[in-house]
C-alpha cells in the first residue's frame, strides 16, 4: 500500500494523558470535538512511549497517521523532552514521527480542560458556582499536581507548576504531631505531596498510628478508603480532607483564583461524599484575614472520565487555529 503523506494538523489528531501507571489515548476527528477511540494501556507493558503510541494507533485507531499530537504527561516537561516522574519512560517528542507534536504537563492539560467541562462532569464541594477570572486546579493522584488557568485577550493561558512540593499545610495540633512523627522517622522536610496523594494516604495512616500509639497493618490507599468502620482509617481520610482544604485555600490565595478551584486526580472521585461531608470546605475558608475572599470562591470536584485528554484536545483546537493562520 502506498504511504499517504500527512501534513501538520491534518485530522485526526492524537491526544494522550499519561500517568505513572496508565497511558490513556484518544483521537480527535474534528476541531473542538471530544476524543473518540479512547483506550487505556498499562504503561509497564511498553518499553517506550513511541511503542505504546504505535500499539494504540495500530490496535485501537485503525492504523491512522495523525497530523498532530498533544500528549499530557505526569512529569516535568523541558521543551521537546519528557521524563515521567513515576515511570521509566523518557525521551524526545520528535521520536513520535508526527508532523506537529506538543507536550504538556498533566496538570497544564487539566487546566486547559476547565472551561470545557460541564454538567455531571463536575460536583460542587462548596461555595458559589465558579465565575470569571483565574482558575486553579489541584489533585491528589500518584503525586499532587497543581496548575492555573489565566484569561487573556487571546484566550486562556495555562500555568504549570510544582505546587505539590510546597511545604505541607499543617494547621491542627494533630497534623503538627503527624509532621513531628514523620520527621522523627526519617522525613525531615515534609511537603504537601507526601501526605496529599494516594501514597500520602498510606503515609498518613502510618503516621497517625504512631501518633495514637497503636500498631496498624500496612494498608493500600484503596484499603484505607474502603475501611469506613475502622477508626484509624476514618481518621486518616478526615485528616487528609482537612489538610487538602487548607492546601486548596493556599493555592486559591496564591493564584487569586476568583474563577474557582477545581479538584482532580485519581483519589477524590472514589470518596466524593466523604469529601463533601468532611472539613474540606471549612478549612478552605479558614483564614484569619481572607475568610470573606475565600468564601466567594467556588470549589468543584472533577468527576469527568478523561479530563486530561479533553484538555489536550482543547489545546490542539486552540493552537491549530493560531498555527494555520500564521
Ligand atoms: N480505590 C482507591 N481509593 C483511593 N485511592 C486510590 C484507589 N485506587 C488507587 N488509588 C490511588 O490513586 C493513585 C492514582 O491516581 P491517578 O489516577 O491520578 O494517578 P496518575 O499519576 O495519573 O497515574 P495513573 O493513573 O497512571 O496511576 C494511585 O497511586 C493510588 O494511590
Describe the secondary-structure layout.
Elements: E1 13-18, E2 22-28, E3 36-42, H1 49-60, E4 68-73, E5 77-78, E6 81-83, E7 90-92, E8 100-105, H2 106-113, E9 122-124, E10 135-140, E11 144-152, E12 155-160, H3 173-184, H4 192-195, H5 198-212, H6 221-226, H7 231-255, E13 261-263, H8 272-277, H9 280-285, H10 291-295, E14 299-302, H11 307-325
Parallel strand pairs: 1-4, 4-8, 10-13, 13-14
Antiparallel strand pairs: 1-2, 2-3, 5-6, 6-7, 9-14, 10-11, 11-12
Helix pairs in contact: 2-11, 3-5, 5-7
This protein binds adenosine-5'-triphosphate.
Structural overview:
The protein has about 325 residues and is of the alpha/beta class. The protein folds into two domains: about 15-115 and about 305-325, ATPase, nucleotide binding domain (Nucleotidyltransferase, domain 5, 2-Layer Sandwich), CATH 3.30.420; about 165-300, Hexokinase, domain 1 (3-Layer(aba) Sandwich), CATH 3.40.367.20. The chain has eleven helices and 14 strands. It has helices spanning about 50-60, 105-115, 175-185, 190-195, 200-210, 220-225, 230-255, 270-275, 280-285, 290-295, 305-325, and strands at about 15-20, 20-30, 35-40, 70-75, 75-80, 80-85, 90, 100-105, 120-125, 135-140, 145-150, 155-160, 260-265, 300. The strands form three sheets. The chain has a six-stranded mixed sheet with strand order 9-14-13-10-11-12, with helices on both faces. Strands 3-2-1-4-8 form a five-stranded mixed sheet, sandwiched between helices. Strands 5-6-7 form a three-stranded antiparallel sheet, with no helix packed on it. Helix 2 packs across helix 11, helix 3 (about 175-185) crosses helix 5 and helix 5 (about 200-210) packs across helix 7. The model has no long low-confidence stretch (mean pLDDT about 95). The structure holds adenosine-5'-triphosphate (ATP). Adenosine-5'-triphosphate (ATP) binds near residues 21, 22 and 221.
Amino acid at each position: 500500500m502506498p504511504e499517504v503523506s500527512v501534513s501538520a494538523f491534518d485530522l485526526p489528531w492524537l491526544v494522550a494523558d499519561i500517568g505513572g501507571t496508565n497511558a490513556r489515548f484518544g483521537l480527535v476527528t474534528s476541531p473542538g470535538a471530544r476524543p473518540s477511540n479512547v483506550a487505556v494501556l498499562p504503561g509497564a507493558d511498553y518499553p517506550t512511549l513511541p511503542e505504546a503510541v504505535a500499539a494504540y494507533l495500530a490496535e485501537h485507531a485503525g492504523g491512522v497517521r495523525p497530523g498532530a499530537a498533544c500528549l499530557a504527561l505526569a512529569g516535568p516537561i523541558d521543551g521537546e523532552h519528557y521524563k515521567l516522574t513515576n515511570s521509566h519512560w523518557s525521551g524526545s517528542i520528535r521520536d513520535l514521527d508526527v508532523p506537529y507534536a506538543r507536550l504538556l504537563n498533566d496538570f497544564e492539560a487539566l487546566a486547559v480542560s476547565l472551561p470545557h467541562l460541564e454538567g455531571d462532569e463536575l460536583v460542587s464541594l462548596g461555595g458559589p458556582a465558579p465565575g470569571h477570572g483565574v482558575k486553579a486546579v489541584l489533585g491528589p493522584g500518584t503525586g499532587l499536581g497543581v496548575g492555573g488557568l489565566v484569561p487573556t485577550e487571546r484566550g486562556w493561558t495555562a500555568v504549570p507548576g510544582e505546587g505539590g512540593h510546597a511545604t505541607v499545610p499543617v494547621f491542627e495540633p494533630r497534623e503538627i504531631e503527624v509532621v513531628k512523627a514523620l520527621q522523627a522517622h526519617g522525613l525531615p522536610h515534609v511537603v504537601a505531596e507526601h501526605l496529599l496523594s494516594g501514597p500520602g494516604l498510606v503515609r498518613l495512616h502510618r503516621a497517625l498510628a504512631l501518633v495514637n500509639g497503636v500498631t496498624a497493618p500496612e494498608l493500600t490507599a484503596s484499603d484505607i478508603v474502603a475501611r469506613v468502620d475502622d477508626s484509624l482509617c476514618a481518621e486518616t481520610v478526615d485528616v487528609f480532607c482537612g489538610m487538602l482544604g487548607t492546601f486548596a485555600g493556599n493555592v486559591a490565595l496564591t493564584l487569586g483564583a476568583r474563577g474557582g478551584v477545581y479538584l482532580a486526580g485519581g483519589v477524590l472521585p472514589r470518596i466524593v461524599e466523604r469529601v463533601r461531608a468532611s472539613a474540606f470546605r471549612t478549612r478552605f475558608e479558614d483564614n484569619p484575614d481572607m475568610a470573606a475572599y475565600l468564601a466567594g470562591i467556588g470549589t468543584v470536584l472533577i468527576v469527568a472520565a478523561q479530563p486530561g485528554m479533553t484538555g489536550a484536545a482543547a489545546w490542539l483546537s486552540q493552537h491549530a487555529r493560531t498555527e494555520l493562520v500564521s
